[in-house]
């Protein structure tokens, strides 16, 4: 089994991605590459907040962490925690 | 391994077939033999003992144990294809001639390069002595052919063995203040009007009226990374910057740094100790008066730093370490 198979990120149509991408505060990523990638995605969404753009941002973010997990292992954990916290926030409403 | 060497010493490395990433004056670079190297112009360095200006010495980064490598130049139009040539596991070292169209295009559009973040992109913008005539263009050189470029980027793409992994780090000693929040209407190196705390103002007028210290950078928070943009020139009705500000990003002025060396020592403790390559900003060298002082790793002092995107007043480190397993 390769690294990509091992990482279980939610599918891109999971509503947690939307909440993560549009949240006021980004996850506390440690690696520069994750911080810049996530900022780029959020800037794109700021310029075009359409549903299609949000869907594309979810795909970009998911693909980055799937493919680059060997470089940013701590940030993958941070991402998973952030996705989980957004799920919990929704449950609490 | 990085160090300052004379051209004959560098030629010995070239003769041995070493793969080299070189910084130095035009005078020094032109003394080099053809070989597996790329070089860019600067005369400012942080040496092993102190900061210095030299047209005779070259900063040399010997690429350790690559699996493979590739040297390639990119015209302005070809810049977006840089990430397409990343190796699957490695890093890419970039040099861009300062104030060239390639420099400006890279800085403004790099965020749109496909797969930018799929590898490590690290390097710097070239320049000349600060007192050099304006008609002496900064340049980069392809060591294989000794071809000089004034308006193309040159890259050394490096492929690492599977047991190693590269990462890119930055050290920014500046912290943002919270008094003013600055937003810009477009992505640009030149600013006329902007929005400060929600009010539209002429940026040059605001800086003068509020006695903002333009030796300190603007800082933006990119999801936790503090990214600097430095002031170049305060004109009558506009402000020129050394990197573009981005539309949609909130910027803040920086707090003064009373003791640069102490701040640097504190911040560098938080990053890796043994980078393969480092570069630091000429503005840090000038404003903090680093000539004769030892601050940070052996490095060229550069006219813009690249860690994926263009940075100012920032130390960039490229680190190679064993891949974690399990």
Describe the secondary structure blueprint for this structure:
The complex is a heterodimer of chains A (93) and B (326).
Chain A: H1 3-6, H2 15-22, H3 32-47, H4 51-68, H5 73-92
Helix pairs in contact in A: 2-5, 3-4
Chain B: E1 2-5, H1 7-15, E2 20-24, H2 26-29, E3 37-41, E4 44-46, E5 51-53, E6 58-62, E7 68-74, E8 90-97, H3 101-109, E9 120-126, E10 140-142, E11 147-149, E12 153-159, E13 164-171, E14 182-183, E15 188-191, E16 193-196, E17 199-202, H4 203-209, E18 218-222, E19 225-229, E20 231-234, E21 239-245, E22 250-253, H5 260-268, E23 277-281, H6 282-287, E24 299-302, E25 305-307, E26 309-311, E27 315-322
Parallel strand pairs in B: 2-3, 8-9, 23-24
Antiparallel strand pairs in B: 1-6, 2-6, 3-10, 4-5, 4-24, 7-12, 8-12, 9-25, 10-11, 13-27, 14-16, 14-22, 15-21, 16-17, 18-19, 18-22, 20-21, 23-27, 25-26
Proportion of beta-strand residues of chain B: 35-45%
Helix content of chain B: 10-25%
On the 0 to 100 scale, the average pLDDT of chain A is 89
Overall number of structural domains of chain B: 2
Please state roughly what percent of the residues of chain A sit in beta strands, choosing from under 5%, 5-15%, 15-25%, 25-35%, 35-45% or over 45%: under 5%
Low-pLDDT segments, ≥5 res of chain A: 1-5
Q: What would you call the shape of chain B? A: globular
The end-to-end distance of chain A, rounded to whole angstroms, is: 38 Å
Oligomerization category of the chains in this entry? heterodimer
What is the typical, i.e. mean, pLDDT of chain B? Answer: 95
The tally of structural domains of chain A comes to 1
Into which percent range does the helicity of residues of chain A fall? over 70%
Unreliable segments of 5+ consecutive residues of chain B: none
Given helix and strand content, the structural type of chain A is mainly alpha
Largest sheet report of chain A: none
Number of strands of chain B: 27
How many helical elements of chain A?
Answer: 5
Q: Let me know the number of strands of chain A.
A: 0
The best one-word shape of chain A is globular
